[in-house]
Amino acid sequence: MIVQKSLFVTFEGPNGIGKTTVIKDVAQKLSVLGCSLLCTKEPTGSSLGDFLRKAEELYGREVLACIAAADRYFHIEKEIAPALATGRIVLSDRYVESSLVLQRLDGCSLEFIWSINSQILVPDLSIIFFADPVIIGQRLVTKRTKLSRFERDETRKQEMFFYHEAAEFIAQKGFHVLLLENEKQSVGDTSEYIVVEVQRLLKKKEEAS
Q1: Which of 4, 84, 112, 172 is the most exposed, fewest CB within 10 Å of its CB?
Q2: What crossing angle do the helices spanning 47-55 and 61-75 adopt, rounded to 10°?
Q3: Is the model's pTM score more than 0.70?
Q4: What's the CATH code of the domain at 65?
Q5: What is the pLDDT of residues 23-39, one digit of tens each?
Q6: How many separate domains does the chain show?
């Protein structure tokens, strides 16, 4: 049993990387340890998040970037911040890195994307998964019946490159970034590694309080 403290952890990477499966396993392991959790995601399940999903096919560049940022601020205000205030661990499937990648693929500058996201809550831990772009592409083709505009129009190689750049960028902004290869390791090994890091951060917070 570990002493519960609030912690905000985000999980990122291209679609098909396997992050959702890892999140479920991490949540299960933390629950066994007695942690109180909120598992959430972006886009949100709100009307704003639903609009964002539909807007991807209708809008682009700065317009879509602003809609995504609005949903993110809503996410923080209505879900993330209240959960953290009650001492829960928040696990979010996607966060600002998605904008730093997808909106760049859409033609926005890194500076513009960050300017509209600069007031977001900085996570305690930002996990970004990587894998061979070819393998990711194969997973998408075999597991998805419908591909998004970005999945249809953009290459996985370019997307992966932008995720590496996003990792460097947010690290410079004070984010604690953990880069994990999610190709050869088992889900159990990957999730266990993350749980150990979460426990380390919780202990660090406890010692600092």
Answers
A1: 172
A2: 160
A3: yes
A4: 3.40.50.300
A5: 999 999 999 999 999 99
A6: 1
